[in-house]
Amino acid sequence: MEELISNFAVFDGFSDLSLLKNHENLMQNIEHNILQHYHSQKKHFLFSSNTQLQEDIESTLHRLAIGTRKHYSIYKDVSQARGREIYKILYDTDIITKEYTREKLLLKHLGPLKKEFRGYKREDKIRFSKEYYRFWYTFIYPHYSDLEKNEYNQTLSEIAENLGYFISSYFEELSNTLLADIYKDEIKESGGYWDKNVEIDLLVKLKDGTQITGECKWTNHKISKNILNKLKKVTQKAQIRADFYALFSKNGFSKELEKREDNKCFYMTYMLLKGSYHDR
Q1: Distance (Å, rounded) from C-alpha 204 to C-alpha 120?
Q2: Which terminus, N or C, of the chain has the lesser number of Cβ atoms within 10 Å?
Q3: Which residues of the chain have pLDDT under 70?
Q4: Strand ranges, E, within 44-111
Q5: Domain range spanning residue 113?
Q6: What is the pLDDT of residue 80?
Q7: Residue 119's pLDDT is what?
Q8: 79 and 184 share a domain?
Q9: Do both 27 and 133 map to the same domain?
Q10: CB 98 within 8 A of CB 69
Q11: pLDDT of residue 86
Q12: Of 123, 151, 179, which residue is a domain's last?
């Protein structure tokens, strides 16, 4: 199951599924299905015949792939007019979608805003509609010059070094989906939470008012109690009331954490891999 999740995190949205060949491991799948077919794959990422506009679009997608995905980050290197033009093209071609912020408005009528909040704007985030698009602009785009010459070594090295971190973002989405499946019609809203000071992997609100914050770890290490304590602190800093804390782990939990008697936590050990969870 771990292998399936990892492959889907890369190949979701792959343009030629009928040509997709399954090899021994994920890195070989990437090399033989993507890198060796770079010249045929790149045609799926042509957005404009205007060379400058195409370059602006691709550099924007690269920033979104490796950055915070905040809405206004698109205007870092382009004018607002060009930014709006780029967004329209990417929305129309279904390359990106929007993830709306759930940060509360700063209410000016309650009094003067603190200095650090003056001029501050809440920001939505931009999400790639398919994981393959995010993979392309994370790992393939920076190595165009090598891949044009059919040179793969540097690209493969960078992918191998950073692939776990890349998959972790997708693991958050799967964890959110699993919570939605567990609570089904009880969910009012779910997804990530971010504001000026903090980021939380998951914030789930149920119709009965129950709130759950969660942390997801796609690593080869077991989750320790430090991760739970960090989640509690971040939740408090965001001034969010949490009735339960959910921990999602690729590789389980420390013995110390599993022995904790805490009726406000549920640990989801291998939830996605074994299809089970236990409630504490």
Answers
A1: 25
A2: N
A3: 73-74, 105-120, 260-280
A4: 96-99
A5: 2-151
A6: 85
A7: 59
A8: no
A9: yes
A10: no
A11: 93
A12: 151
Tokens of 266: 């549920």
In DSSP notation, 198-242 reads -EESEEEEETTS-EEEEEEE-SSS-B-HHHHHHHHHHHHHTT---
Q: Is 248 helix (H, G, I), strand (E, B) or coil?
A: strand
Backbone φ, ψ for residue 29 (5° rounding): -60, -40
**Beta-ladder partners of 128:** 96
Q: What pLDDT was estimated at residue 122? A: 80
Tell how strand 193-194 and strand 199-200 pair up: antiparallel
How many Å from the N-terminal Cα to the C-terminal Cα in the chain? 25
Local structure of 53: helix, strand or coil: helix
Look up residue 272 and give its amino acid: L
Same domain? 140 vs 23 = yes
| Strand ranges in 2-102 using DSSP code E only, listed in sequence order | 96-99
Query: In the prediction, which pLDDT does 268 show?
Result: 53
| The pLDDT of residue 208 | 95
Whether residues 224 and 122 share a domain: the answer is: no
Element spanning 126, H or E:
strand 125-128
3-class SS letters over 253-277: ECHHHHCCCCCCEEEEECHHHHCCC
Judge if 134 and 210 occupy the same domain. no
Q: Are residues 217 and 146 in the same domain?
A: no
**Domains of the chain: total:** 2
Tell me what pLDDT residue 273 has: 34
Please answer whether residues 92 and 85 qualify as being in contact, where contact means their C-beta atoms are separated by less than 8 angstroms: no
